[in-house]
Amino acid sequence: MKKVFIIGALLAAGAVQHVINAQTINGTLHFSAGTVAPLSVTLPGNFEAPAGNVTFGSGGWGRMGQRFLLGGSGFGSTNRNTSGPAGTVSTNWGMGFADFGYIFAEKKQWVNYVFAGIGGGGLDLRYHNNTEQPLRLSDNLTIAPGQRAKLSTGGLAWQAGISINRVFFSENPRFLGPKIGLEAGVFHFPITARWTNNADDAALTGIGRPGMQGAFIRLTVGGFSR
C-alpha cells in the first residue's frame, strides 16, 4: 500500500507548473482529509465492511492550456477494525491515480472543475481468530483458534468527481498562496485482482474476486504556484 501513496505523490509533484500571469493559477499541491460512505467491499469470512472510514491523502494538478488539467492524487484509510462470526479483521487500503480534469467555471478567486483518474489500489486484511471456533476464509485457508492471518489484494482502480476551490491571491509573484477546496465523487477498485495469503503467496480458492467501491467527500488544503 505504501507504493500507492508514493506513486500518487510523484504524480502530484509532477503536475505543478510555474505561472506566467500573476492572476492565473497554473498549478496546485494539496493535502486532503475526508470520508468514504457508503463503502462496499467484499471481505472473506462473511465480515462486514468497516464503518466510519476516515481518509487522508494528497494531490496536485497543472494547467494544460485554458481549461484542461493534468495531475495526480492518492488517498486511503488505515487500521479500521470490524467483527465477524469468528474473530476480527483490520483493514488498510490506499490508491493512487493519474488525474485528468476540465475547468467548467473560473471567476475571480474560484476555480471549479470535474476530474477523472485511473491508477491502482491495494487492500490489506489482518485477521485474528480470538474465538474457540475455526475461522474458514476459503477452500485452502482456515484460521485456527487464537491464530492470525494476513491477506492482500491489488489491481486497477478509477475515480471520478467534482472539485470546488477557493484560492487567495498574493501581490508577491513568488509567493505560494493558500487554497481550500471540497471534492466529492466515486471510486472503484480493484477491477482485476485476487486474494493472496501473505504467508505463502498462495491465491485463495473457492471465493469470489475482491471488489471495493464507494462515494467520497474530502476537504483539500494547500497552495498554488503563480
Your description of this structure?
Helices cover 6% and strands 62% of the residues. By secondary structure, it is mostly beta strands. Strands 1-2-3-4-5-8-9-12 form an eight-stranded antiparallel beta barrel. It has a two-stranded antiparallel ribbon with strand order 6-7. A hairpin with a 2-residue loop joins strand 4 and strand 5 (110-128). The longest helix is centred in the N-terminal third of the chain and has 14 residues, at 2-15. It is elongated, with a radius of gyration of 20 Å.
Number of helices: 1
Strand content: over 45%
CATH topology: Porin
Round the Cα radius of gyration to an integer and report it. 20 Å
Number of E-type strands: 12
Shape: elongated
CATH architecture: Beta Barrel
Mean pLDDT: 82
Low-pLDDT ranges: 8-23
Which sheet architecture does the biggest sheet show? Answer: 8 strands, antiparallel, barrel
For the termini, the CA-CA separation is 33 Å
| SS content category | mainly beta
Strand order of the largest sheet: 1-2-3-4-5-8-9-12
The number of distinct structural domains comes to 1
Report the CATH C-level class.
Answer: Mainly Beta
